[in-house]
């Protein structure tokens, strides 16, 4: 047996040096194969089979709107434009498909496959001779015009086609349907010519702000066919789109976004645009290998999370990005799009900072914003959310109907009803990445099973990842192979973990510090068993207004408040739910917790239920903490404005003398809560 264990840390400008040494390529020189030159690439979607609590979550989505949006939502259901009708021909149908397609194949669900194939088949089969695709346009329907690059104005908005291209890539990675490649090839040849007279912003600023999504698919196709015209197209789209890379890197964007909430350039502050744009510098780097783009990405991401970051791992955005106060909201679409951007960034950069960021966002911010049945969602969630109700709150887009905070199918903008489906599905399909050395990389952790071919011998192997992570600290890998196979396996050791313990076939063989990706290069045998153990220590972290959040491993913890649900109806936006706490929430954490969390916090871990749901009743972990009430901390118009602390982090106003024991649960299981606490003596 041979075995080699190596590790690498990728942080800050050390990563830039690593890239330069690894790739040995000059700035602006296009590589012959993106997939060979970047650390990781996505595996076929069908290679990964979710298990355990993650599978339960996907089944909930299958039974809810992910599996049935076309049956319950009139805009998608009626006379759909992506099936040749006069109905929705813009973003919402592709948004839904972008999550429904991977779900259908992750679950190997025949009914869902047939459902999504209707839209995919219509789109491919009705591509115009010129390469243009999409719903029948007004000019085509009324004037019987043939759309060509020369009369591209007879076409319609570039933006929804970008989403449908993402759908097509998902479908190809799931089905290997070879029709997708010529379909994309024809379209991109059309687009390259048409953009010269119908630029990316012709129909909407949405396309101009989201050009990176278009570039992403063009460059993915280039990795397959090496057609240099695709690089020309990517360069052209970049010049016509918002200059996110430059803005992220020069810092004036971050400062302006933090201080301005008016109509001037609001699309540059729109949280979903920002979430999508995170991938822009990495796309430019992938195409050019110019290291400045990685620096711009790191500067922009760090500025964004410093000025606008919230404890649950996402930046504020209601709809503009809006500072780091725990009373700011965040749009559900911003979470799912930021997750997807991070998944792409991870493959291109290999930077552990973005792996850790994806984990925090997924296990904390994502689950809380939908109902148990996955049929209703919050347009905006709030970190310190003491009630879910109609109101204007502190949002930059409050709406006159005051429906942006409630849980409803159609409340707020319905883009999130269509776009929420890609969060869990794409996370599941990115638990593993392939490497250029024909190995595997486990960069995010959840229960699953992977079957793929590895090593120089292209040997099929199955790895069972048996775990209740992130609710427990052990991850068990069991290997099933018909013959011994040598390949490198990479494993992320999260930055929050001080020291991980690795056990192979019952014997400890390695301890590794957190904040790195390690490589185990060995001959793997049938029935090999590898165990990762990430001891989860309790810590506190500092957030907006000198507030403190309790953390343990990848999870942040919020005050457990029993919930009172009320159903309502609003004429334009339909049925919705409000949620109110049944008990007091105005607590400050004792200063001693910040000084010594282990001494003052106790943890109780419960078994994971068979039918897992992200709700209060299924929360598998509770932390008990000492706290005191702050009598003057009261909600005003539903908003629990943070009490002011001094520079030492202590609230100096009136505090009750009695110390009480409060219960905290992982943030993702709550609907009403306090997660960013004031600190009291």
Provide an overview of this structure.
With 681 residues, this protein is of the alpha+beta class. Helix content is 36%, strand content 22%. The protein is built from 24 helices and 27 strands. The strands form 5 sheets. Strands 18, 19, 20, 23, 24, 25, 26 and 27 form an 8-stranded mixed β-sheet that branches. The protein has a 7-stranded antiparallel β-sheet with strand order 3-10-11-12-17-14-15. Strand 8 (432-435) and strand 9 form a beta hairpin. Helix 9 (159-175) packs parallel to helix 12 (211-225) and helix 10 crosses helix 13. The protein is globular, with a radius of gyration of 25 Å. Mean pLDDT is 94; it is low at 7-32.
Helix/strand/pairing category? alpha+beta
Low-confidence residue ranges: 7-32
Total number of helices: 24
State the major sheet. 8 strands, mixed
What's the gyration radius in Å?
Answer: 25 Å
Number of beta-strand segments: 27
Overall shape: it is: globular
Helix content: 25-40%
Our estimate of the beta-strand percent is 15-25%
**Distance between termini?**
58 Å
Average predicted local confidence, pLDDT: 94
In short:
The chain is of the alpha+beta class and 681 residues long. It has 24 helices and 27 strands.
Keywords:
single chain; alpha+beta; seven-stranded antiparallel β-sheet; 27 strands; globular
């Amino acid at each position: 047996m041979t075995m080699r264990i190596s590790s690498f840390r990728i942080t800050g400008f050390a990563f830039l040096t690593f890239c330069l040494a690894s790739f040995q390529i000059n700035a602006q020189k296009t590589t012959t194969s993106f997939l060979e030159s970047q650390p990781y690439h996505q595996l076929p979607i069908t290679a990964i089979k979710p298990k355990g609590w993650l599978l339960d979550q996907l089944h909930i989505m299958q039974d809810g709107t992910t599996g049935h949006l076309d049956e319950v939502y009139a805009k998608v259901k009626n006379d759909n434009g992506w099936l040749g009708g006069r109905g929705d021909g813009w973003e919402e149908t592709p948004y839904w498909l972008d999550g429904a397609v991977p779900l259908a194949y992750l679950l190997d669900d025949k009914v869902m496959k047939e459902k999504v194939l209707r839209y995919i088949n219509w789109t491919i089969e009705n591509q115009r001779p010129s390469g243009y695709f999409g719903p029948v346009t007004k000019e085509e329907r009324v004037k019987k015009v043939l759309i060509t690059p020369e009369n591209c104005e007879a076409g319609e908005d570039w933006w929804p086609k970008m989403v449908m291209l993402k759908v097509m890539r998902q479908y190809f990675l799931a089905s290997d349907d070879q029709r997708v490649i010529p379909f994309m090839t024809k379209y991109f040849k059309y687009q390259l010519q048409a953009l010269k007279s119908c630029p990316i912003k012709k129909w909407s600023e949405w396309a101009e702000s989201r050009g990176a999504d278009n570039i992403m698919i063009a460059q993915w196709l280039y990795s397959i066919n090496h057609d240099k015209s695709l690089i020309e197209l990517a360069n052209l789209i970049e010049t016509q789109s918002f200059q996110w890379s430059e803005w992220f890197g020069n810092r004036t964007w971050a400062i302006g976004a933090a201080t301005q909430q008016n109509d001037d350039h609001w699309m540059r502050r729109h949280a979903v645009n920002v979430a999508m744009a995170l991938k822009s510098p990495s796309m430019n780097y992938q195409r050019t290998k110019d290291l400045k783009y990685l620096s711009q990405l790191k500067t922009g991401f760090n500025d964004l999370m410093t000025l606008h970051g919230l404890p649950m791992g996402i930046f504020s955005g209601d709809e503009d990005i809006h500072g780091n106060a725990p009373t700011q909201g965040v749009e559900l679409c911003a979470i799912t799009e930021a997750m997807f951007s991070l998944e792409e960034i991870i493959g291109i950069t290999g930077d552990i900072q973005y792996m850790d960021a994806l984990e925090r966002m997924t296990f904390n911010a994502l689950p809380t914003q939908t109902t148990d049945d996955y049929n209703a969602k919050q347009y905006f969630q709030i970190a310190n959310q003491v009630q879910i109700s109609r109101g204007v709150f502190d949002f930059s887009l409050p709406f006159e109907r005051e429906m942006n905070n409630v849980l409803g199918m159609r409340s707020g903008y319905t883009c999130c009803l269509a776009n929420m489906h890609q969060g869990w599905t794409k996370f599941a399909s990115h638990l593993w990445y392939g490497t250029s050395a024909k190995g595997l990389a486990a960069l995010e952790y959840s229960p699953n099973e992977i079957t793929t071919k590895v090593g120089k011998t292209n040997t099929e192997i199955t790895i069972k990842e048996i775990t209740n992570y992130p609710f427990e600290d052990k991850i068990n890998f069991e290997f099933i192979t018909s013959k011994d196979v040598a390949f490198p396996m990479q494993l992320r050791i999260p930055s929050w973990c001080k020291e991980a313990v690795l056990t192979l076939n019952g014997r400890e063989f390695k301890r590794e510090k957190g904040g790195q990706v390690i490589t185990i290069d060995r001959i793997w045998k049938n029935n090999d068993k590898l165990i990762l153990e990430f001891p989860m220590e309790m810590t506190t972290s500092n957030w907006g207004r000198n507030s403190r959040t309790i953390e343990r491993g990848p999870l942040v913890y919020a005050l457990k408040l029993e919930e009172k649900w009320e159903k309502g109806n609003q004429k334009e936006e339909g049925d919705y739910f409000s949620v109110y706490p049944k008990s007091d929430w105005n607590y400050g954490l004792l200063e001693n917790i910040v000084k010594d969390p282990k001494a003052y916090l106790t943890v109780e871990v419960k078994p994971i239920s068979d039918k897992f749901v992200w709700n209060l009743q299924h929360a598998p972990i509770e932390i008990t903490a000492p706290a005191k009430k702050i009598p003057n901390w009261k909600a005003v118009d539903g908003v629990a404005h943070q009490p002011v602390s001094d520079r030492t982090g202590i609230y100096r106003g009136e505090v009750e003398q009695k110390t009480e024991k409060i219960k905290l649960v992982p943030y993702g299981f709550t609907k009403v809560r306090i997660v960013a606490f004031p600190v009291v003596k």
